[in-house]
Amino acid sequence: MVLKVYADRMSQPSRAVIIFCKMNGIDYEEIKVHISKGQHLTSEFAEINPMKQLPAIVDGRFKLFESHAILIYLACAFPGVADHWYPADVSRRSRIHSVLDWHHSNLRRGAAPYVFNTTIAPVLGRPLNPQAAAEAETILTSSLSKLESFWLKGNGRFLLGGNQPSIADLSLVCEIMQLEVLDEKDRARLLDPHKKVQQWIENTRNATSPHFDEVHKVLMKAKEQLQYQRLKAAKNEGGSYMKKPLPSRIWP
Amino acid sequence: MKLKVYADRMSQPARAVIIFCKLNGIDYEEVRVDISKLQHLTPEYSEINPMKQLPAIVDGRFKLFESHAILIYLACSYPGIPDHWYPADVCKRSEIHSVLDWHHSNLRRGPGIIYQNIISMPVIGRRFNPEAVAEGEKFLSASLSKIESFWLKDKGQFLLGGNKPSIADLSLVCDIMQLEVLDEADRDRLLGPYKKVEQWIENTRSAANPHFDEVHKILLKVKEKRQNLRLKGANNEGGGSAMKKPLLSRI
Fold first, then answer.
1. What ipTM does this complex have?
2. In angstroms, what separates the C-alpha of B102 from chain A's closest C-alpha?
3. Could you give all domains of chain B from N- to C-terminal order, each with its CATH number?
4. What number of other Cβ atoms are within 10 A of residue B209's Cβ?
5. Rounded to a whole number, what is the distance in Å from the CA of B214 to chain A's nearest CA?
6. A95 close to B (CB below 8 A)
């Protein structure tokens, strides 16, 4: 029975798992669960993941959720996965655990709510929340700083001084890619100060080509449509698009 | 060179690491970093952990922070550690990763926030935030519900149907123990609905004793002090139970 990956490519951790499978030749069936249509909230999906979140996997009778746990499981359970993804060496592996844990309370806690509360919320029929956005922005900028000054210090091309990517690079870069849907000026304001971060994103993208771009196509389509709506609104009203709710067809 | 564990026993994840070391006979030196005196914010401590958080370890030349990463490192690096703490079986191990990850975004956002606002922020001169406490309570109830109905759903005494504790039990129970500093009525209101959770806390405590109680002594001292202050306050105001008043109004 082939591995099943329950995913929505608009979900950052879903993309990390899919790219990992493709990079490592893991045979899988992708089952699309559309967040924008509330499919993750159905009782059917609750059988797969009672936490109602994506991604989740089913491998035979074994079910698993939480993307870091999934990436580690796949790295250990499937043959031929190169060591650099999740090294056997205890110290190197521990450092990967360390950055993956830091991610939960830092980059993820900043990037995801910032994008949601400035851009995505109206698409899903929820109000924009400027206060939550401001709080998330503080965490996001602090996290990007920490990536620039600590996690990417030294001469390596990847996190923790690595010269090849690990599951941590995949997870964190997929998270930052969500910023693509922001207004260009906003995205530039957040990312421009961090040259190492920008280079690292590019390194990770190249190392996982062509799968990285292919899996991010959906996000890039959403980005295009949002940009178009912003231009349209700016032309029509001479003002910010932000106050108008965005049509739900922007979310693929 | 002995393992160094940088810890403050008022910190939930620090306690989990210390208890694990004691239970498994790991030879270590506990280096106390007092959060209430802001010692975690010094440049000296930043050399150990640039994120300025506890716990952290130094094992020879190897430095590590984030308690889950530390627990896993210790379970893998030190000899003679029973398999149940961090099983070699890939599926069992993955399930432990799954609950540890879930913890970050769920339970961890409950007791800690409540505790920080009630105890540690006033101590360091920062204002308590009622919205943060309300949100902390929300996360806490939702998380306890999920532990009761899902993580403890099978017949075992511990998370994921286990009959022996894992690092996940230690980590999550130490977090919930932070609620001990609240007054009895509040603690009962928050934990009372969850019978399986209460039993599981007791199971973990028994499995990890006498170290569990010894490492939690400092927390229980803070609880006693606060109880005495409350009694004193109640006596001065002419008695009457504060028991029914919501948490926020009595902080």
1. 0.93
2. 7
3. 3-81 (3.40.30.10), 84-211 (1.20.1050.10)
4. 12
5. 28
6. yes
DSSP letters for B129-186:
-HHHHHHHHHHHHHHHHHIIIIIT-SSSSSGGG-SS--HHHHHHHHHHGGGGGS-HHH
Query: Out of B76, B101, B146, whose CB is closest to A104?
Result: B101
In chain B the first and final C-alpha atoms are separated, in Å, by 45
pLDDT along chain A (252 residues), means of 10: 96 98 98 95 97 97 98 96 98 98 95 94 87 95 97 95 97 98 96 97 98 98 93 75 49 62
Spatial separation of the C-alpha atoms in residues B230 and B237, rounded to whole Å: 11
* Rounded distance between C-alpha atoms, residue A13 and residue A7, angstroms: 9
Structure tokens given for B130: 């009622």
Single-letter code of the amino acid located at A19? I
DSSP assignment, residue B118? Answer: I
Task: Tell whether pTM > 0.90.
Answer: yes
Are the C-beta atoms of residues B108 and B171 closer than 8 Å to each other?
no
- What order do you get walking across the sheet with B3-7 strand by strand? B28-32, B3-7, B56-59, B62-65
User: Is B98–A65 a contact, with Cβ atoms under 8 angstroms apart?
Assistant: yes
Task: Classify residue A206 as exposed, middle or buried by CB count within 10 Å of its CB (0-12, 13-18, 19+).
Answer: exposed
Q: B88 to each of A142, A252, B8, how far by Cα in Å?
A: 36, 41, 30
pLDDT band for B118, please (50, 70, 90 cuts). Answer: confident
